[in-house]
């Protein structure tokens, strides 16, 4: 079995290539059967809301909405608690399947044996 992958994306529309790369890697891993946990932090927090990933556009890139769909169907997507609070995003606002959790949960995930953590 492949090592689990925890990806923290800190960028959104403010750094579209970095943002898209995180989602692309997470979706590719999830589609390949790798256990994936994608953390939405900073400006990527907005993509936890319905329709927001569809508004993102980057030339020559798979639509973010499609990548997010793959990740949600085969992995875990988490919105950072503090990032959500700063943007006034609550549990009833997010897409189905997105959880809101904080640093203790992130630390628990990345501290698990054989986990690979990547930050974009």
Spatial gap, N to C terminus: 24 Å
- The stretches of 5 or more residues where confidence is low (pLDDT under 50) are none
The assigned structural class equals alpha/beta
Oligomeric state as shown: single chain
Q: If helices are DSSP runs of H or I spanning 4 or more residues, what is the number of helices? A: 4
* Shape by Cα distribution: globular
Helix proportion range: 25-40%
Q: Rounded to an integer, what's the Rg over CA atoms?
A: 13 Å
Order of helices and strands: EHEHEHEHE
Indicate the mean pLDDT.
Answer: 97
Strand order of the largest sheet: 4-3-2-1-5
How many strands, which pairing sense, and closed or not: the largest β-sheet? 5 strands, parallel
How much strand content do the residues show? 15-25%
Explain how this protein is built.
The protein is an alpha/beta fold. The chain is 34% helix and 19% strand. The protein is built from four helices and five strands, in the order E-H-E-H-E-H-E-H-E. Strands 4-3-2-1-5 form a five-stranded parallel β-sheet. Helix 1 runs parallel beside helix 2 (64-74). The two termini are 24 Å apart. The model has no long low-confidence stretch (mean pLDDT 97).
Topology, please?
Layout: E1 5-9, H1 16-31, E2 36-40, H2 64-74, E3 76-80, H3 81-86, E4 98-101, H4 103-110, E5 116-119
Helix pairs in contact: 1-2
Features:
alpha/beta; 34% helix; 120 residues; 5 strands
Overview in brief:
34% of the residues lie in helices and 19% in strands. It is an alpha/beta fold and 120 residues long.
